[in-house]
Write a structure and sequence with these properties.
about 120 residues, four-stranded mixed β-sheet, about 55% helix
Length: about 120
């Protein structure tokens, strides 16, 4: 296990791969390692933890050293906790009602991620 955990993304999604390329170094400097959800060890680990869950998630996953799994907005907020300039978002997320809003926003973007990839390629 890496120092802070593993950041898992959809390696078959252009949008996700682009974000991993763009922001991966930041996550690595914060102590996280990156891996594709489709990696064999990831599939085995998720199946073991979730009793057969498949690794085609609609959200990024964060595997923490204590075996805890965070997904989507919860994962992003946890990463923010490890980056000095991300602390304001992490602190904001502790206020009542903020996490449900961040989760809603994350799900909206995640649901449209394949269209976002196409739109970015057309520009």
């Amino acid at each position: 296990m890496s120092e802070a955990g593993w950041l898992l993304y959809d390696g078959e999604c252009g949008f996700c791969c682009g974000l991993a390329d763009s922001w991966g170094r930041l996550a690595q400097r914060a102590g996280f390692s990156l891996a594709e959800l489709q990696a064999e060890w990831v599939c085995e680990r998720l199946a073991r933890n979730d009793g057969g869950a498949d690794a085609t998630s609609d959200e990024l996953l964060l595997l923490l050293p204590d075996d805890k799994e965070l997904g989507g907005a919860d994962a992003l907020v946890e990463i923010c906790r490890h980056v000095w300039w991300g602390w304001p978002l992490w602190l904001l997320s502790r206020l009542p009602g903020v996490m449900p809003l961040l989760r809603w926003l994350y799900r909206r973007v995640a649901a449209r991620r394949h269209r976002l990839t196409v739109a970015a390629q057309l520009d």
